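Same chain as my last thread, 242 residues:
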Amino acid sequence: MAPGQPDVVVDARPEPVPIPLAKTAVVVVDMQNDFASAGGMFDRAGIDIGPIRQAIAPTARLLGSARQAGMKVVYLKMGFRPDLSDSGAPHAPNWLKHLPLRPGEDVEAPDGTPSRILIRDTWNTAIIDELAPGPADSVLYKHRYSGFFETNLDELLRSSGIDTLIFVGATTSVCVESTVRDAMFRDYHCLLVEDCMAEPIGADLPGSNHEASLLVLQVLFGSVADSASLQSALRSVVAAPA
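reply #2:
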């Protein structure tokens, strides 16, 4: 393959997307117990985690293919410090919007151990077992919807020569979309994998937030593909003779 050519081209909307494997990272957004597991924050709040659970299997397959192809994988986790000092002041919008979900509240993890809602280094903010990070993967905490806000995500990606990001995770219209927008503002090329992310708001209605976010993002902030198309492109590289 000629120097400077993309390693693979993925069938996507609004048009096929070149993916330079050595310069691409998969960003896994908030696939943690608070959002995706029984007993987590969403589940306790009565929010249907079914759509997020449905995204787990295709995400696991995609991550396996990405690692085989040599791509970097970065996990983002939403979590506040134990003293809630990074959650915002009592009247800050970030705190007020989270307050109904009871961040910081003491709870019991499914195995009976003490935990706390949306607090770092507890069962609640651990990545779900089905998508456990590999030894070469990076894991970063964030304390706002965007993974770039007051984190070293940009520094980590730049130091690895990354300029293209593949996004999976939850939720589509909040933390995924917030991070994609900030990525585009920093000149990263963004590809969203639609069946590897989910949005519980309006998931059972036509024109859900999931679909609305993907439409806006593919028009102005990046591209959208499904996991089958991306995996097909990655398998062609992994299977190619050396």
